[in-house]
Design goal:
The chain is of the alpha/beta class and 279 residues long. 41% of the residues lie in helices and 14% in strands. The chain has one domain: Aldolase class I (TIM Barrel), CATH 3.20.20. Helix 8 links the parallel strand 6 and strand 7. Helix 2 packs across helix 11, helix 8 packs parallel to helix 9 and helix 9 crosses helix 11. The longest helix is centred in the C-terminal third of the chain and has 18 residues. It is globular, with a radius of gyration of 18 Å.
Length: 279
Amino acid sequence: MNFLDQLRRAETENQSMLCVGLDPEPSRFPAGLARDAEGIYRFCAAIVEATADLVIAFKPQIAYFAAHRAEPQLEKLMAHMKAVAPRVPIILDAKRGDIGSTAEQYAVEAFERYGADAVTLSPFMGFDSVLPYLKHEGKGAFLLCRTSNPGGDDFQNQRLASVAGQPLLYEHIAGLAQGPWNVGGQLGLVVGATYPREIARVRELAPTLPLLIPGVGAQGGDAAATVQAGWRAGGDGATTGPIIVNSSRAILYAGGGADFAQAARTAALATRQALNEAR
């Protein structure tokens, strides 16, 4: 089963478009939980256990682990997720972007060391920086396209005079991902919930690709506007291309006490419901 199949199965079984982002900040952990590498594992594992039946995917952000020397705990967490939620795909948020043998090693890191089902990538060094990941059969790769931060305008919203039709850069990336770059049907795109009009444009240009959409919750993205912009019903009632709407801090830190995991579940339930009602 490839990554796209995994997504479609999780979407159906969990009735969900919600992705829980695992961005552990020890300074925000509840009292009584150690603020070290092992505490990071315990916090994330509790969140996973509390939300495993509510999500289309999990998305651990590698920097939050590496900054605290918690890479071994990330490996342990990835294995735990596979055991607790074997039918929920895992997207490693690493935003890698390099070429040649370096890209090959980053792909090994994501898919073999950590066992991720997909990874986020920067496409700005061209197709040869993406291809090493596509050589891992069945794995997915999400290309940064129209990101949720305001600074994305600096490059992504610039017009390409040298390309036929003079598309904006993010439009050009969407077209490449839907077309010539998607050699194994493994690509998806990252588009920010803070820009619903651009989500709709990306969906127009890439009707079948999965869209990873961060920015709902703490960043201010609107759940209903996000779904209306990116979700499209297929002929059999399934989506033409899954949308994976990520929320991190609003779920992780929904509660600050010993019941933090239950509070996270309550927040995830509410977010999942809001997303489903917007279809």
